[in-house]
Amino acid sequence: MKNSNRKIITKLMLKLLPIQILLAGIGAINGIVSSLFASNFIGQDAMSAVGLYSPVNMFISAVSTMLVGGATIICGRYIGQNELDKTRRVFSLDIAISLLVAVLFTVIMLAIGVFDLSFIFTKDTALQQILNVYLIGQAIGILPLILGNQLSAFLSLENRTRLTMIASIVYILANLALDYIFIQKLAMGALGLALASSIGLWIFFIIQATYFFTKKATFRFALGDVAWNESGEVVKIGIPGAASYGYQSLRGVIVNSLILKYVGSVGISAFTAANSLMGLFWAVPGGMLAVSRMMISISVGEEDRQTLADVMRVMMYCFIPLMSVICLGIILMAHPFTRLYYRDMSDAVYMLTVWGFRILPICMPLSIIYMHFSCYGQASNKNILVHVLALLDGVVCVAGFTALLISFLGMNSVYIANVLNGVVTTIVIVGYAIIKNKRIPRNMEELMVIPEDFGVGEEDRIDISVNSIEEVMDVSRKVQDFCLEKGIDNKRSYYAGLCMEEMAGNIVDHGFTKDNKKHSIDIRVVYKDDDVILRIKDDCVHFDPAERAGIIDPDDMTRNIGIRLVYKLAKDVNYQNILGLNVLTMRI
After folding, report:
1. How confident is the model over 206-235, as pLDDT tens digits?
2. Which of 423, 445, 467 lies at the terminal end of a domain, its last residue?
3. Residues 433 and 533 in one domain
4. Average pLDDT over residues 332-348
5. pTM of whole model > 0.70?
6. Mean pLDDT of the chain
């Protein structure tokens, strides 16, 4: 059963991964397009402006991540507990707060640009003028950036990632076309560079927003439904994950200052170029984290110990090897990637950029471990671990190692510091598990330090895997025997077995035959508080039994009789389609 559950989880996570990588890469693609136009058609000063704005953008992303992380984790818990009304209220809260925050950031960025306050970023007066207009253009896109990120996450929960993919592709094409028009045709310089991105973000946001005004949408914004009482919890849960971005913003300021002091503006230009293209590849671990975050939050809500550990196993055995192969490719392509930005090999900026592509990728597989354990820590309230990791990753390691090494390693110290950062955070994760377990972790559950009282014990649940109609026939007996062992009376035990057999058989008869794919059913029976909770999960096409339970054909009273019988016998029946999985919960 454990292997069957892991196969379902692996299949689902890999299925969701491409769209989440694309979503995570939107900002990176925008950054690549902007940096290419900046370096090739405007000049190194424009490239420096992009680099100086990067910590600001990182801080805005931190706040956006805090909101979307806190809201989706809470919603995941409520989904796992079948509390759909509460998820809608949290959605409205998330949109309301995001709107207020976006307006605030927009006003601040406009004020800095209009009133020539960019001296807080650089003392170079010529660079200040370029940065002023760049900030004005970027300010226009802050609102759709923050709101678009929120909508993307909720579309994933609704299994509507295709719409986000369409919005992403349109955004990328629009940004590219607008860059060409504003920079090459209209010669708008840094302002055109920023405006192209901002207008593209508005297109991205509007395309996604249309879905939430349709009747199909589970989540709909309603000001009267805003769960203001949950705002503190959203921030509390979201801050640890977002703290990393906030720390990285501070780290960016510190590292930029060190580069300017010991290497010069040429170092900023090289670092910006390497980071810009690397941002595209960082979308891969970002997408991996997005998939895992949804699975982790739902597993915590369901108190599903097995799935929680399986998510981490997929990370270890699938995600990290995949990322390692990608990183090797980046290292081998160091020179071709550098030539996208700088073509004169005699220029100092050229080799500084090459070494960025050779060293920085090494830290990426290690970062996947940090990101996943930090996310799990958020969802399970391991706040001390999350804050320590965020502080180390965000500021202490990268800025600290850079400060120690830059005087004799120059620009390479920045790249090496990122690798050392991944090593330190991984050691801390293992060390935390050793301290909590009082021994070296022997399995994934011990490495994750999952509490012993999390979920029900193995003696109070039974897991069954069904792959064919022949196996369905044995389900009723297994469920009935389990109930009788728990002291449940004969009548309830019989009903529990009958309900599970009916629903499992219905899935095999109809779901397994809808396509040519191989499917399986994951059944769990839990005894808790004198209730028998039956949960059945499958990866077949969308099917809500409630829609069939109400269908009664006067000419054929036997039609859908099995489903109607289940609804009559069970105290409560709840269906959800979570991330493309049909999840039916029955309480007997």
Report:
1. 999 999 888 778 788 878 777 787 787 777
2. 445
3. no
4. 90
5. no
6. 81
Note whether 387 and 260 are same-domain residues.
yes
Is residue 140 a contact partner of residue 198, using CB atoms and an 8 Å limit? Answer: yes
Q: Are 133 and 191 in contact (CB under 8 A)?
A: yes
Give the helix/strand (H/E) hosting 538.
strand 531-538
Residue 552 vs residues 509, 544, 557: alpha-carbon distances, Å: 20, 16, 7
**Across the strands, what pairs with 494?**
none
CA distance 441 to 206: 48
The closest of 71, 99, 487 to 293, measured between CA atoms, is: 71
46: which residues sit within 8 A by CB, 6+ positions away? 38, 39, 130, 134, 189, 190, 193
Same domain, 348 and 199: yes
Query: Which one of 445, 480, 511 terminates a domain?
Result: 445
The strand pairing partners of 556, in sequence order, are 553
Give the tens place of pLDDT for each residue, 499-515.
888 888 888 877 777 77
**Long-range Cβ pairs for the range 560-566 (8 Å, 24+):** 562/502, 562/503, 562/505, 562/506, 563/502, 563/503, 563/506, 565/498, 565/499, 565/502, 566/499, 566/502, 566/503
Domain count of the fold of the chain:
2
Compute the average pLDDT of residues 542-549: 62
| Sign for the pseudo-dihedral over CA of 507, 509, 515, 519 | positive
Where does 303-411 have alpha helices with state H? Answer: 305-314, 320-332, 334-339, 348-359, 363-379, 383-391, 397-409
- From CA 344, how far away is CA 39, in angstroms rounded? 13
The pair of three-digit structure tokens given for residue 348, joined into one six-digit string: 């100092």
Q: For residue range 117-160, what is the model confidence (pLDDT) as tens digits?
A: 878 777 777 777 878 888 898 899 999 999 988 898 888 777 77
DSSP string, 46-87: HHHHHHHHHHHHHHHHHHHHHHHHHHHHHHHHHHHTT-HHHH
DSSP assignments along 559-586, one per residue: TTHHHHHHHHH-SEEEEEEETTEEEEEE
Under the phi-then-psi rule, with left for phi > 0, alpha for psi from -120 to 50, and beta for the rest, what region is 515? beta
Angle between helices 265-302 and 305-314 (to 10 degrees): 150
For residue 148, the enclosing domain spans 2-445
- The fraction of the chain above a pLDDT of 70, given in percent, is 85
Q: How far is CA 310 from CA 4, 325, 443, in A?
A: 11, 22, 11
Indicate the DSSP class of residue 518. -
DSSP state of 439: S
**Residues 6+ away with beta carbon under 8 Å from 392:** 421, 424, 425, 428
Structure tokens at 491: 């009548």
